[in-house]
């Protein structure tokens, strides 16, 4: 057998080669090591999390986890906590190792070769990648800067009629733009297109600005819709600051969660993540208090960035895009100041960086570094 024959025999599926890795936020430890930095040396504006850290009681809950015992494969206690919080039946909830794993499991369960997935972009890259890996075709509709990246409901309804996708992926609020779609719009789409599974990623739901009546009206959660073809994703890594533990869940009709559960790996959610999730959900007011403060800091941060002559894009979340011209150059320049922002080239936005609001002292350091770069 020749080397060529061996390589052919062990070659991956074509879909693997067609779905390259997607860059994400958060520090690249190897890059930091090359620069001579430790992770704690860098102020990280590239992750859209809660800068105030996990709720009280979370760290203590980790000390009580029996490490010698396998975790509960069904995450029963955590699911009960979610069920009580959302007032949805237990069998409509499925837990994953972060929502990223659940996105992959959704594609594994529902995307067949040749199926089409509609992705409302620019957005999280794992939607398209997961569908592509399963042999699906991806149709991306892109919002425009001229419209502040707003999504026009009538145009999406038209696309649903034209494409007739097996799945539609919508991040709501959207990453990286911070735009939102009201629940009644999503419900109308789902009702009009019963053969499409609507995957609504609400990883940043808690961060939505509900300070104005027009924004608050109808912006609740698709988790309570109960439609047969709506699946809602929620992350515990962002609002509860559990990124290092990896924890998320989905809410859907019983037959949908059962199908996805049948393809998940065994013990996919570790015992420490489950314990932390339960402890976090017991702190009912913690997240809302953090985010109320965070939006006050965001307002000041946006004003100060605009005063430097840069162009922050309006958003309904604590994170937002800034048009800088050459995002890669700005990221490198800021990293030299030990500040990390998100270069949005992988979203198809090479002229933009994404900034997540942090605490006031850290925001002030970002402004100082940007002032030196702009000057």
The residue fraction in helices comes out at 25-40%
Cα Rg:
21 Å
The portion of residues forming beta strands comes to 5-15%
Shape: globular
The CATH architecture designation of the largest domain is: 3-Layer(aba) Sandwich
Structural class: alpha/beta
CATH topology of the largest domain: Aspartate Aminotransferase, domain 2
**What distance lies between the first and last C-alpha atoms, to the nearest angstrom?**
63 Å
Instruction: Provide the CATH top-level class of the largest domain.
Output: Alpha Beta
Mean pLDDT: 93
Largest sheet descriptor = 7 strands, mixed
Q: List the secondary-structure elements in sequence, H or E.
A: HHHEHHEHEHEHEHEHEEHHHEEHEEEH
Number of strands: 13
User: How many domain modules?
Assistant: 2
Supply the CATH superfamily name of the largest domain. Answer: Type I PLP-dependent aspartate aminotransferase-like (Major domain)
Number of helices: 15
Strand arrangement, largest sheet? 2-8-7-6-5-3-4
Low-confidence segments: 212-219
């Amino acid at each position: 057998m020749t080397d060529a024959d061996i390589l052919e025999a062990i070659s991956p599926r074509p879909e693997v080669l067609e779905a390259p890795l997607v860059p994400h936020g958060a520090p690249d430890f190897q890059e930091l090591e090359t620069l001579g930095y430790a992770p704690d040396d860098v102020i990280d504006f590239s992750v859209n999390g809660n800068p105030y850290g996990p709720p009280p009681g979370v760290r203590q809950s980790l000390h009580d986890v029996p490490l010698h015992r396998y975790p509960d494969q069904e995450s029963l206690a955590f699911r009960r906590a979610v069920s009580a919080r959302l007032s949805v039946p237990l069998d409509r909830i499925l837990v994953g190792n972060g929502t990223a794993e659940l996105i992959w499991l959704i594609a594994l369960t529902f995307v067949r070769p040749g199926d089409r997935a509609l992705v409302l972009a620019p957005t999280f890259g794992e939607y398209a990648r997961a569908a592509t890996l399963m042999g699906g075709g991806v149709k991306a509709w892109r919002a425009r800067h001229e419209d502040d990246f707003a999504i026009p409901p009538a145009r999406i309804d038209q696309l649903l009629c034209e494409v007739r996708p097996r799945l539609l992926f919508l991040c709501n609020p959207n990453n990286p733009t911070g735009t939102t779609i009201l629940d009644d719009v999503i419900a109308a789409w789902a009702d009009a297109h019963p053969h499409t599974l609507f995957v609504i990623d609400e990883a940043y739901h808690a961060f939505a600005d509900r300070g104005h009546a027009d924004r608050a009206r109808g912006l609740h959660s698709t988790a309570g819709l109960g439609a047969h073809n709506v699946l809602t994703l929620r992350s515990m890594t962002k609002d509860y600051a559990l990124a290092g533990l990896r924890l998320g869940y989905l809410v859907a009709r019983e037959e949908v969660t059962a199908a996805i559960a049948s393809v998940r790996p065994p013990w996919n959610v570790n015992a420490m993540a489950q314990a932390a999730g339960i402890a976090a959900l017991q702190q009912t007011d913690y997240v809302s208090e953090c985010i109320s403060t965070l939006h006050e800091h965001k307002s000041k941060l946006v004003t100060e960035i605009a005063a430097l002559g840069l162009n922050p894009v309006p958003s309904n979340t604590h994170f937002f895009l800034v048009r800088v011209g050459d995002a890669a150059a700005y990221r490198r320049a800021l990293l030299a100041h030990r500040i990390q922002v998100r270069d949005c080239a992988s979203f198809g936005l090479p002229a933009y960086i994404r900034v997540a609001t942090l605490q006031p002292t850290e925001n002030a350091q970002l402004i100082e570094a940007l002032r030196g770069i702009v000057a």
